[in-house]
Amino acid sequence: MSANDGDAPLYYRKHVFMCTNEREAGHPRGCCKEKGADDVRNYMKAKAKALGLKDVRINAAGCLDRCELGISVVVYPEGVWYTVSSFEDADEILEKHLVEGGRATRLLMPAEDPKH
Length: 116
Known about the structure:
- By secondary structure, this protein is an alpha+beta fold.
- The protein has a domain at about 10-55 and about 85-105.
- Helices cover about 25% and strands about 20% of the residues.
- The chain is built from two helices and four strands.
- A four-stranded mixed beta sheet has the order 2-1-3-4, with helices on one face.
- Helix 1 (about 35-50) crosses helix 2.
- The radius of gyration is 15 Å and the shape is globular.
- It starts with 13 loop residues before the first strand and ends in a 17-residue tail after the last helix.
- The relative contact order is 0.20.
């Protein structure tokens, strides 16, 4: 018996959460919002729609607690974490992970945060 026996089918094939948290100016850990997270999320959402990815949801998230590593993105159900800094990075995640089913290896966030 698997852990998800009896669970409803996934509503979305992939669910992308992008941190759009805002911390006070000068915070030592920075914040994803000041790195352009809102613009990148809006871009990624529009691009997913243009690609016809109707079974993918791109959502804004509150703090994912990895802001010092760049704009934090996590894709479920796999739980794969990425660091994004541009529209090109968003394109790479869309293509490699969400379309092809692989990983955008260059953008993978380290499993361990060296500051914790």
